[in-house]
Amino acid sequence: MLAWFSENTLLLGLAALDGLSYAATVFMVAVGLNLVFGVLRILNVAHGSLFAIGGYVAATLGLFIASHGLPAWLSLPALLLAAVLTGALLGPVIERLLLRRVENQEPVLQLLVTFALFMILEDLQKLVWGVQPVVSDAPVRLLGTVDVPFGTDVIPFTAYQLFVLPGVAVVTLLGLVWFLRRTLAGRMIVAVTEDREAARAMGIDAARVTLLTFSAGAALAALGGALASPTASLVPGVGAQTIVLSFAVVATAGLGRVEGAAVTALLIGLGRAFAVYFEPELEVVIPYIIMVAVLLVRPQGLFGVLETRRI
Amino acid sequence: MTSENPGNPAGRAAGLITRRATLGAAMAGSLLLPGRQTQAQAAKPAEIKVGIATYLSGPASVFGVPGRQAAEMLFDEINEAGGIGGVRVRPIFVDEGPGVDHFVGEYRRLVQSEGVHLLFAAISSADCLACTPLADELKRPTLLWDCGTQRIFEDNRFEYSFRTQANATPEILSALLYLLRAKPDFRSIAVVNQDYAWGRDSWEIFRTGMQALKPGVRIAAELFPRFGATDYSTEITRLLALRPDVVLSTTWGGDLDAFIRQSSDRRLFERSTFVLPLAESSLERVGKALPAGHIIGARGDHWFLHPNPRDQALLARFTDNFRKRFNAYPIYPCHHMAQAVFAMKAGYEKAMAAKNGGWPTDAELAGAFRGLEFPSLTSSVRIREDGQGLENQIIGTSHHTDKYPFPVMTDMVVFPAEMVTTPVGQKSTDWLKTLKPDIVQGLPQPVAYRP
């Protein structure tokens, strides 16, 4: 075993770099889904659509910047702007007009409502952006590549992949943890997550907290899409594929756990990268193998806590 | 109750009329039922209704929507020219996006409720495999307009289904032959294909052919990322480290665009020669992210700058009209749709000629397609006795020019259909094993891009 590790140290290092950047993208989407579930107790199937719309808006802004001869560096803040725009415009509308109306309904009905929303948003994407792939890779080209030594060889990585994706994910994680634990608004969210009724009894405006949390979750999904857009091609259906993986991350992490989403995204990212290197046939199924393995041992997820049934 | 009174003549007569009327109605009704329209359709219809299955949703809509656009344009042109035999044609589109089960229901609905006279189906190989037995059951002529699986006519014989283009075997074999001539000394290869039937089957065809024509090539990696993947960074790192001489990818759509862009960003194109049999459909989108010097194909004899089209004016008119109407160059699904439309027209005309101008029944129309030769936008296609279309294949090398903001093809080779298509009655996997390396010596000469 040790001999195998020493033989493959360099490859493991490369795989770890790949796994890290992949994990960053997965985390951005999963953490938003997790946050929303924590407060609303609704598994939002339309979360994948918000990812896709964030990506499309970012690509549109990027193409606008390029076509109008504006400085290329503007394409980087445009990614953030796309996420904020998507979260601020769509988040409140979806929460107020749709999710609030099914707040106290059966989970299956809530699931169906978000699924219907997902279908509507998919068609909306096609109406606005068409069916041909959309891409704007200015941020990747702007930052160039970094040569990583590999024995006597070098492997070019994009600086965007090595630094921007993991960097934004780490900042998001730390920012969220700080916000939830150190600020009043964050503590209100935690209170509503823990016990909505008790939070209300203490004077917290749970409806407002829910609205803000959902909008933040939508913005995080959109940020995931925006960050993916410079390398990915946005096509109809990209949201559906994202949401499936996000569900796997959230279920493995434990529903409602932010740090859990980070650790699980890392596990899945690294697991997938190692699979590509050493057992490519497992690449597609590795996230689900990890999920099943974790849930067999800890049905509540890696970081989930067992709840007693409330009567 | 009168009809039940045998002692009353009037009542008996009334009863007979009622029974006759009932029988007549039943007979008329049965004639209107699907599968029994053979006699009814011998009369010239008010319009020819054509059910067209294509992807209008999901990732494959990058092919399905251009295919639909081509159909709309060509149906309009046929109607402006007076229709087929004086009868207007009307397309009825259905979406393949929801999956095979939904498509089977749609196929039945098109035949039984819409009463379509002919069907074009489909892009998905799974949909084609599902509808060919259905076409025989419902006795409705069906043109397989885009799907690639070679298994349809190799595993079965169908009376009402015909493919108006090639299949996966010639599409992939021609890319392999081109590679063998362009880069005969390659020693290692890696594959990056989508993880579904097409990705696996096309690699199987390529590998089987390669092992017959150039045994001993090292397969450095077989990577099958999930269908719809947006991030290929891990696969690209792996390939950068392995340095295979050749990277094969039959990936398409947004997946291929992402793979090309990410490979370009990380200079993978500098280390390996890429073979991309479906890249023609991505050229306009990826632009010059795809460098010069890599092998690209078009799933047939399709290219708006074809080096030797049978009718230059026809190709130019189609390209110009499509660009004016849809603001894009026509990609291969547009050519495939054109072939289905041209086959439909030629099939009706052949069947009518055989009846001295009379309108053909479903069976007569189906019979006309077997052995039919019809024009394509670049050459012609012949439907063999087994229902498979014989279509040439064009493969070229990517080339940059100032005239277009995307790569064009140079050193184009048009492979004759007979050279690269599995003979009637044989299975591709068996036939590929019989190929001999000297086949490469007999390939047509490449033609350079002419500005």
Number of domains of chain A: 1
* Subunit arrangement of the protein: heterodimer
Q: Within the largest sheet of chain A, what's the order of strands?
A: 1-2
Number of helices of chain A: 13
| CATH fold call of the largest domain in chain B | Rossmann fold
Tell me the major beta sheet of chain B. Answer: 7 strands, mixed
Which structural class do you get from the secondary structure elements of chain A?
mainly alpha
Give the DSSP E fraction of chain A (strand runs of 2 or more residues): under 5%
Greatest contact between two chains = A-B, 45 and 39 residues
- Strand element count of chain A: 2
Distance between the termini of chain B: 87 Å
Radius of gyration of chain B: 25 Å
- Overall mean pLDDT score of chain B? 91
Helix content of chain A: over 70%
Specify the number of helices of chain B: 15
Alpha-carbon Rg of chain A, integer: 20 Å
Total of domains of chain B: 3
**Residues in helices of chain B, as a percent range:** 40-55%
* Largest sheet data of chain A: 2 strands, antiparallel
Structural class by helix and strand composition of chain B: alpha/beta
Q: Which architecture name of the largest domain in chain B does CATH use?
A: 3-Layer(aba) Sandwich
Short description:
Chain A: It is a multi-pass membrane protein. The complex is a heterodimer of chains A (311) and B (451). Chain A has 311 residues and is mainly alpha-helical.
